[in-house]
Automatic annotation (TrEMBL):
<feature type="domain" description="Type II secretion system protein GspF">
    <location>
        <begin position="55"/>
        <end position="173"/>
    </location>
</feature>
<keyword id="KW-0812">Transmembrane</keyword>
<protein>
    <submittedName>
        <fullName>Type II secretion system F family protein</fullName>
    </submittedName>
</protein>
<feature type="region of interest" description="Disordered">
    <location>
        <begin position="122"/>
        <end position="145"/>
    </location>
</feature>
<feature type="compositionally biased region" description="Low complexity">
    <location>
        <begin position="124"/>
        <end position="133"/>
    </location>
</feature>
<keyword id="KW-0472">Membrane</keyword>
<dbReference type="InterPro" id="IPR018076">
    <property type="entry name" value="T2SS_GspF_dom"/>
</dbReference>
<dbReference type="Pfam" id="PF00482">
    <property type="entry name" value="T2SSF"/>
</dbReference>
<keyword id="KW-1133">Transmembrane helix</keyword>
<keyword id="KW-1003">Cell membrane</keyword>
<feature type="transmembrane region" description="Helical">
    <location>
        <begin position="167"/>
        <end position="188"/>
    </location>
</feature>
Length: 193
């Protein structure tokens, strides 16, 4: 009897949530543990990273850095598609290419097309690129907020199906059936039938 209790307690200790996954608790302490959650987090993009990159680029430009130097500095922390476009444009601008040529590869990528458009327009007209980057950051944040709100609304709709499947039978069994049985017993006892 006691060996059953001990084995159940050992199994419960393996199943209970802890700081490490249960499969990690079975391994030796010195063995490396692969955390699946951290890999998933790395794969997911931060929806506000692009807006932060645009804000950082605007701050660099407002501080007086040339566009090539600012783009190179910001490319180090930018998300992958934007980072590559910024680095390529910074390299071309440093080599003396005009803005249309430097931002050409960024214009072909849908993720960085608006950045390239603003940079080309700024180079043609002489307007401040920092103001345009602030506008792009605001637009990116608004898009991220709209996307988050849409996801939350979609989750609310998707949760109603399982909840309905769980609660509707319980409501019928515990709410409607007793009322119908009570009414039927009164009708039968009252002699109406």
């Amino acid at each position: 009897m006691s060996w059953i209790t001990l084995s159940l307690m050992a199994g419960a200790l393996l199943v209970l949530p802890g700081r490490r996954p249960s499969r990690g608790r079975l391994r030796d302490e010195r063995s490396p543990i692969v955390d699946v959650d951290s890999d998933d987090r790395r794969r997911r993009e931060d929806p506000l990273a692009i807006a932060a990159t645009f804000d950082l680029l605007a701050a660099c430009l407002r501080s007086g850095l040339p566009v090539a130097v600012a783009a190179e500095a910001v490319s180090l922390t930018a998300p992958p598609p934007l980072s590559e476009s910024l680095r390529r444009a910074a390299d071309l601008l440093s080599l003396g290419a005009d803005a249309a040529t430097a931002w050409e590869s960024a214009a072909s990528d849908p993720a960085t097309e608006s950045l390239a458009r603003m940079a080309r327009r700024s180079a043609r007209s002489g307007s401040s690129l920092a103001g345009s980057m602030t506008e792009l950051a605001t637009e990116s944040r608004t898009h991220a907020e709209d996307s988050a709100a849409a996801s939350a609304e979609r989750a609310g709709v998707l949760i109603s199906g399982p909840l309905g499947l769980c609660f509707l039978p319980a409501f019928i069994c515990l709410g409607i059936v007793p009322v119908v049985i009570g009414l039927a017993s009164r009708v039968v006892d009252g002699g109406l039938l």
